[in-house]
Amino acid sequence: MTLYNRRDLGLLLLRVGTGGVLVAHGAQKLFGWFGGHGLEGTGQFMESVGYRPGRASATAAGLAETGGGALLALGLATPAAGAAAAGAMAGAAAVHVPNGFFAQEGGYEYAASLGLAAAGLAVTGPGRLSLDHALHHVADRGWMVPAALGVTAAVTTAVVGMRGRRVRREREGEQEVLFGE
Questions:
Q1: Before 146, cis peptide (omega within 30)?
Q2: How many CB atoms lie within 10 A of CB 101?
Q3: pTM, whole model, 2 decimals?
Q4: Tens digits of per-residue pLDDT, 1-28?
């Protein structure tokens, strides 16, 4: 009989909790479940905050959250799952940075917490109570951690950077209109 230690149980709780929240948020974006706005409404929101094209951005964020969250909860392909979810949360946090840290003020606290938990799981691994362990870690090799996090960091930096430049250009254009009259 195999006894699981506190670390395995803790990782299971962290994976299921973090993954479940991510799945719910992704399902709001993709399907309009749980009071979400689906791809159409989320796409319009994404456009309004500088992520273009909006529908494609909503689809990418929804898939990263739903897919990454589900895989994290199952403990399957943990490096890729954690990296995908962390990237999506970095994109969300970028929208909220102007509002400061705390969520009650519209800040990035919540997105940052989910992203850090997902990245931490990617690095730490899923524990023995996971599909990765049951499948002998075929999708959870040591080299996959820096590869997944590196690719996600590069893509996220590019996407968030493009959004930031777009938002600054639009803000400067509004100022020209205000002061140019």
A1: no
A2: 11
A3: 0.91
A4: 467 799 999 999 999 999 999 999 999 9
